[in-house]
Specification:
The protein is α+β, with helices and mostly antiparallel strands and 623 residues long. The chain has 23 helices and 20 strands.
Length: 623
């Protein structure tokens, strides 16, 4: 059994079972279990420390992904606590079932397992005790706790492999899946469209009214809202005209601004002996080729070349200063951070700067915007305080001299009653805020780039069914479309009946002025080119000669299956190995699920919700 516990299958199936555990639930809410336990499966506990460790790791992951800290209630809303609990209880059920069968691992086996664990064994090396200690410290394990967790993991693997390790699907099942997946079919088809239709007579008013009465819900005036907005934008606050010429000139003269800084191709050679370094520098300055010096020093150019770099890109300030004071092809020696260093400059690329007159307006606008951004931050605090004090949009606009706009009776897409699109800043976010608030509620802030827009909903016009007189044009269009669709469906039904009764499909198509097209072979999962997926599904519903129709937008596709090709099947076919693996895993997972579901029903699984809430912080501060 132990030799068969290789772990890969077990780990995969355990992961699948964790996902399916939510189907079972945890039976029985209790408060009387050991306070060091958060749950129990049969006789096997889930310790509070084990849960807290796993829960914190998962919480940290989602916090890192979102880039901000979350409250316990927010973390709870992501379902992390339930997910971790489900995972641990599933593992405990497996350990409990294994222990009931007497499955366990010896200390020697556990030690050998850890000695070969990749977490503690450098590639090609031996067990690293320091790596082991760091791992325990990082996850706040004592040695005894860690050994217990690893022993249970080994027991889970052994139990899983002993239960389902040798399961494999029957060959007829694999053959059926291969047939379903790889069988190909061909169809002959034609389309019925508007050109196939007869003229649709104009409806009477009674017909239109009857249609309107049957489909009233389709003729609704959308909900409309009127709202006011006030905008705080650095762009609107910026005043380039007040920026002084001196400030513009100082920004222009900054090193590397509005151009590219000087760059040099630099080599550095760190040596142990300053005398050797100085002799090398003297030789270079005397005309000796740098390549010859490198050979003498046993160095390669690739080892010493920093490339074409700016001064700010050189890590060591002493080397940077020396490199940018040398002439091309010259060298010097400095006391670098890592010892005596030979510094040489190969080539110099001069700095380039845009003419002042070309960029001064850009600089002035940029400086003004920077100042306006600072003003906007300060002003935003004042506006936020005013909103908290109950100030409406109009008062905010007056008090802080900010632009305001009133939008009248638009739908969720920002269209007015004439169907015209209204110009709304921060369109999507503003409309969402306007349609989420109650009329008269405090203004809600939304972001639009660097701008903040406060939105206040003024009035709400509820959606309602339009009277027939107002909707008559839309009713006529909908009635005409319904008649056209009905006529196409009737024609398609008649065409399919003719095909299935033995009339050649080409003759049927000719009755409607259409031409038949022959498809290439296709499978159930991939429809013929240019046709919807529903064609493939319908084509596989009957044998060769089977006819059917499928809607495709404003057309109907009528087709007949003209050929069916069965796939070859060889049990040893390498192309089926992945399919067999998936089927084997699915069957093993089903067996495990059924077994653990039954085991849980027999032994029970309980959770101490009070301790769970204490560990996750849920309920704290509420009331």
């Amino acid at each position: 059994m132990r030799r068969g516990a290789k772990g890969t299958l077990a780990k995969l199936l355990i992961a699948l079972l964790v996902l399916s555990f939510a189907v079972w639930g945890v039976s029985g809410f209790v408060n009387t279990v050991n306070p060091t336990e958060v749950a129990r499966a049969g006789d096997t506990p889930v310790s509070a420390r084990e849960f807290e460790r796993a829960w914190r790791v998962q919480s940290m992951r989602i916090t890192q992904q979102l880039g901000r800290s979350l409250t316990p209630q927010e973390i709870q809303s992501f379902g992390i606590a339930n997910s971790v609990l489900q995972s641990l209880v599933t593992g405990a059920l497996q350990v409990d079932a294994a222990h009931d069968l007497g499955i366990d691992v010896s200390d020697d086996t556990l030690a050998e397992r850890l000695r070969s664990d990749p977490r503690f064994v450098p590639e090609g090396g031996n067990f690293d005790r320091n790596a082991f200690n760091r791992y325990l410290a990082n996850f706040n394990y004592s040695e005894n706790e860690f050994f217990k967790v690893e022993r249970e993991a080994a027991v889970q693997e052994m139990w899983t492999n002993s239960l389902v390790g040798g399961l494999t699907v029957p060959t007829p099942y694999l053959e059926a899946v291969n047939r379903f997946t790889n069988q190909t079919r061909e169809i002959a088809s034609f389309r019925l469209d508007n050109d196939s239709l007869s003229t649709i007579p104009d409806p009477t008013e009674e017909e239109l009214r009857a249609f309107y009465d049957e489909h009233k819900d389709e003729f609704r005036a959308p909900e409309r809202r009127s709202f006011s907005i006030v905008t705080l934008s650095p762009d609107a606050l910026a005043e380039p005209e007040v920026v002084s010429e001196d400030a513009v000139r100082r920004a222009y003269d900054a090193d590397g601004a509005y151009g590219t800084p000087e760059r040099r191709e630099v080599q550095q050679v760190v040596l142990d002996d300053p005398d050797v370094a100085q002799k090398a520098a003297d030789a270079i300055n005397g005309g000796t080729a740098f390549s010859a010096i490198l050979r003498e020093l046993g160095k390669k150019r690739s080892d010493v070349d920093l490339g074409l770099v700016a001064k700010s890109a050189i890590f060591d300030p002493a080397i940077a200063e020396a490199a940018f004071s040398l002439d091309a092809r010259k060298a010097t020696v400095v006391d670098g951070r890592f010892g005596p260093t030979l510094v040489r400059v190969d080539d110099i690329e001069a700095a380039a700067k845009q003419p002042y007159d070309e960029v001064k307006d850009e600089i002035r606008a940029s400086l003004a915007l920077d100042e306006a951004i600072d003003q906007a931050r300060a002003l935003q605090t004042d506006v936020t305080d005013a909103v908290a004090g109950g100030a409406p949009v109009a008062e905010i606009a007056d008090r802080f001299d900010l632009p305001t706009q009133t939008v009248e009776a638009v739908d969720r897409n920002g269209r007015d009653e004439n169907g015209e699109t209204v110009d709304i800043p921060g369109r999507e976010a503003v409309l969402n805020a306007a349609f989420a608030a109650e009329a008269g509620a405090d203004p809600a802030p939304v972001e639009d780039g660097d701008a903040t827009i406060w939105v206040q909903t003024d009035t709400i016009i509820e959606a309602d069914i339009l009277p027939f007189e107002e909707a008559q044009g839309d009713v006529l269009l909908a009635w005409t479309e319904a008649q056209r669709s009905k006529q196409l469906d009737e024609m398609a039904t008649a065409a399919v009946e003719a095909v299935n009764s033995g009339t050649p499909i080409a003759d049927v198509a000719a009755q409607y002025g259409a031409e038949v097209a022959q498809s290439a072979p296709f499978t159930f999962s991939a429809a013929p080119e240019g046709m919807p997926r529903a064609v493939a599904a319908a084509a596989f519903e009957g044998p060769r000669g089977h006819g059917a129709s499928v809607p495709d937008g404003n057309t109907r596709i009528v087709f007949q299956v003209t050929d069916v090709t069965e796939p070859a099947f060889f049990v040893e076919d390498q192309g089926l190995s992945r399919v067999r693996q998936q089927l084997d895993e699915g069957m093993a997972n089903a067996v495990l699920f059924d077994f653990l579901n039954a085991w849980q029903s027999d032994v029970g699984a309980t959770v101490n919700q009070q301790i769970l809430n204490q560990l996750t912080g849920v309920g704290q501060g509420q009331g």
